[in-house]
């Protein structure tokens, strides 16, 4: 279980150490991508807790959602429509739903554990 | 097989974690930089704004002061003009005063002029009336008046200067000027344009001719430097 955590820490370190400057207008895409990634991550955790976790779905969803969100934002900027709002909305709602489901499952597990 | 699957699973998960961590960290750093930049620029903007406001205030103050200065300068220039006029007036007044003093005989006068000498004619036994060739006060009057008319600034008889209220009367053998007796011959000096005075007296049928007609010896002399003392105040 320590390997993914190590990966996360290494990623944070690399992110903090890299000195790449990207134009300000592209930072929006990055935010959307992070939102997508978090959504997928919580979706994966929920699936794991519901025992319907599929690694292929998770990994492909993770990268595909990131790319989709980024390209949607990119398209929105070039069309003059704030399409990234759609991504923010969709991913935000799903994020909250996922976290709510996770919380319920954990609560249920905890109370059943306590009963035992 | 199971072990390998778990390993594979973990590798993929760590890749996902790596990407997520990188993205989050990168975005965090980027945003922080931006907000910091914004904060600095905000502060700078505020500073710029306050400085600009100050500048505008100063400029407004300057312009109002400049207007005030212009107004004051207008006032001053007006006053200066007035002063210049007044100075001119005073100068004229001073000049006039000097001139009038000269006419009144209050100051010493010095300048070019003419000297006229009137002497009694030679004794003529044929002539019964001696008055016919003596210098009378009206002869002196004529000369003096003629000199004044011709523009003499000051006139004196035998060195006694005449004032505006001088009187000349016949007092028998002498004439009296302002209370002082003068015997013949009379020397009348006048300060003024010598050329003018000379020609005024010498004009044909003029004073000289009349005097000569009355057998008075008339001699005229131009002088470069005549000085007349001021008339002493009468007690």
Automatic annotation (TrEMBL), chain A:
Subcellular location(s) per record: Cell membrane
Alphabetical list of InterPro entries matching this protein: DUF1290
Assigned keywords, A-Z: Cell membrane, Membrane, Transmembrane, Transmembrane helix
Transmembrane segments: 5-22, 28-45, 57-77, 83-102
Superkingdom of the source species: Bacteria
GO cellular component assignments: plasma membrane
Topology versus the membrane: Multi-pass membrane protein
Pfam family, one: DUF1290
Family label: Belongs to the sbp family.
Protein name per its UniProtKB record: DUF1290 domain-containing protein
From TrEMBL, chain B:
Classification via Gene3D superfamilies: Protein of unknown function DUF881
Keywords (A to Z) from UniProt: Coiled coil
Coiled-coil regions listed in the entry: 48-82
InterPro entries noted in UniProt: DUF881
Recorded family membership: Belongs to the UPF0749 family.
PANTHER family with a match to the protein in the record: UPF0749 PROTEIN RV1825, UPF0749 PROTEIN YLXX
Protein name: DUF881 domain-containing protein
Organism: Mesobacillus zeae
């Amino acid at each position: 279980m320590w390997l993914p955590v190590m990966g996360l820490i290494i990623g944070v370190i690399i992110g903090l150490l890299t000195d790449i400057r990207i134009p300000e207008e592209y930072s929006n895409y990055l935010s959307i991508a992070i939102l997508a990634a978090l959504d997928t991550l919580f979706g994966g955790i929920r699936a794991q807790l519901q025992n319907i976790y599929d690694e292929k779905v998770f990994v492909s969803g993770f990268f595909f959602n990131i790319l989709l969100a980024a390209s949607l934002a990119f398209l929105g900027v070039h069309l003059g429509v704030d399409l990234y709002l759609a991504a923010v909305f969709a991913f935000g709602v799903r994020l909250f739903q996922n976290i709510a489901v996770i919380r319920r499952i954990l609560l249920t597990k905890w109370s059943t554990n306590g009963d035992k | 097989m199971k072990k390998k699957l778990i390993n594979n699973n973990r590798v993929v998960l760590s890749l996902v974690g790596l990407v997520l961590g990188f993205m989050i960290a990168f975005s965090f750093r980027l945003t922080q930089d931006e907000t910091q930049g914004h904060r600095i620029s905000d502060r700078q903007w505020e500073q710029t704004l306050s400085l600009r406001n100050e500048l505008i205030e100063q400029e407004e103050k300057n312009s109002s002061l400049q207007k005030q200065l212009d107004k004051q300068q207008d006032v001053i220039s007006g006053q200066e003009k007035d002063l210049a006029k007044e100075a001119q007036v005073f100068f004229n007044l001073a000049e006039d005063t000097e001139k009038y003093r000269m006419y009144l005989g209050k100051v010493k006068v010095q300048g070019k002029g003419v000297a006229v000498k009137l002497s009694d004619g030679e004794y003529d036994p044929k002539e019964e009336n001696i008055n016919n060739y003596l210098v009378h006060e009206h002869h002196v009057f004529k000369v003096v008046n003629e000199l004044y008319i011709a523009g003499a600034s000051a006139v004196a008889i035998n060195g006694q200067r005449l004032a505006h209220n001088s009187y000349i009367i016949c007092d028998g053998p002498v004439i009296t000027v302002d209370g002082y007796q003068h015997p013949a011959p009379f020397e009348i000096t006048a300060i003024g344009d010598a050329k003018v005075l000379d020609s005024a007296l010498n004009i044909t049928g003029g004073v000289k001719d009349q005097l000569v007609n009355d057998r008075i010896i008339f001699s005229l002399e131009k002088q470069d430097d005549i000085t007349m003392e001021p008339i002493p105040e009468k007690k």
